[in-house]
Amino acid sequence: MDKHLKEIRVGGELVYDGKFLKVQKDQVALPDGQHTAREYIRHPGAVVILPVLDDGSVLMERQFRYPLDQVFIEFPAGKIDPGEDPLACAKRELEEETGYTAKDWQFVSVIHNAIAYSDEHLDLYLARGLKAGAAKLDEGEFLETFTATIDELLDWVRSGKITDVKTVIGVFWLDKLRSGAWKLD
């Protein structure tokens, strides 16, 4: 159907093989027959958890992100390990980062946050029926948790206090679900 837009890989190589990220450089044939190179980051995928407490408030994190040299407000999230089921990853990450477990999990959506230069995908999950516990942060992981209302989160998106794309999209999902405009399957 989209054959007139498709690029076909004709060769390539892994140019950087890091512990977390890999950089691929491929040669591709363009739809008009010309050849060019495509460089992109290979990423194993991640999950994002939208944890809603019984009172309707949302469990959030503040975490320093080195590439941009600042603390960001984010939803709990984490990388999917090789062979790991995404829902199992979401449950693991929520407990590791926040100490919370959830009784009710619902898949929300898949998002692709950097389509021009990465194959990363993020699976969003809604977590409800939360129960507090002790966080089990990974070595070298530092963050703090807090709660906010959906209206506060929307205000922070509008004002630029929240700029992380997975969090912006998650806030919009929570607002649509709360209003009843969108439903989950």
From TrEMBL:
<dbReference type="InterPro" id="IPR015797">
    <property type="entry name" value="NUDIX_hydrolase-like_dom_sf"/>
</dbReference>
<dbReference type="InterPro" id="IPR000086">
    <property type="entry name" value="NUDIX_hydrolase_dom"/>
</dbReference>
<dbReference type="InterPro" id="IPR020084">
    <property type="entry name" value="NUDIX_hydrolase_CS"/>
</dbReference>
<dbReference type="Pfam" id="PF00293">
    <property type="entry name" value="NUDIX"/>
</dbReference>
<dbReference type="GO" id="GO:0016787">
    <property type="term" value="F:hydrolase activity"/>
</dbReference>
<protein>
    <recommendedName>
        <fullName>GDP-mannose pyrophosphatase</fullName>
    </recommendedName>
</protein>
<feature type="domain" description="Nudix hydrolase">
    <location>
        <begin position="41"/>
        <end position="170"/>
    </location>
</feature>
<dbReference type="GO" id="GO:0006753">
    <property type="term" value="P:nucleoside phosphate metabolic process"/>
</dbReference>
<dbReference type="GO" id="GO:0005829">
    <property type="term" value="C:cytosol"/>
</dbReference>
<comment type="similarity">
    <text>Belongs to the Nudix hydrolase family. NudK subfamily.</text>
</comment>
<dbReference type="GO" id="GO:0019693">
    <property type="term" value="P:ribose phosphate metabolic process"/>
</dbReference>
<keyword id="KW-0378">Hydrolase</keyword>
